Amino acid sequence: MAKSHSGKILIIDDTQENIALLVEILQKKGYHISAASSGERGIVIAEKIKPDLILLDIMMPGIDAYETCIRLKSQKKTKKIIDAHHGKIWLENHPDGGVLSCFIIPNQQNE
After folding, report:
1. Res 67 pLDDT > 90
2. Number of domains comprising the chain
3. CATH, residue 53
4. Which range, 2-6, 40-44, 78-82, is most confident?
5. Residue 103, domain member (yes or no)
6. Measured in whole angstroms, how far is the alpha carbon of residue 50 from the centre of its chain?
7. Is residue 106 part of a domain?
8. Full domain range(s) for residue 19
């Protein structure tokens, strides 16, 4: 029997297929999932639910992951949330980007 988790995860991604896939995988593991399709909406949700982890896409219309992260880190309720970013760009251009933890979600077969 698979281990069940009770953590809250917020997915912020403008691609609905990515959200659906992550929700399917993570809900089966017992995580409580919330999702937003924009950085602006993700900030609002994060303030309300105080997730344990945010999975954040880098390239989004409106405010991108960088600005979303800056805004999350500037607010008292969300400044301690661990952020995870999609793509190698974040690590290459923002090695001290204010995140507590960062990992890569592969977006191509060979990653």
Report:
1. no
2. 1
3. 3.40.50.2300
4. 40-44
5. no
6. 12
7. no
8. 8-93
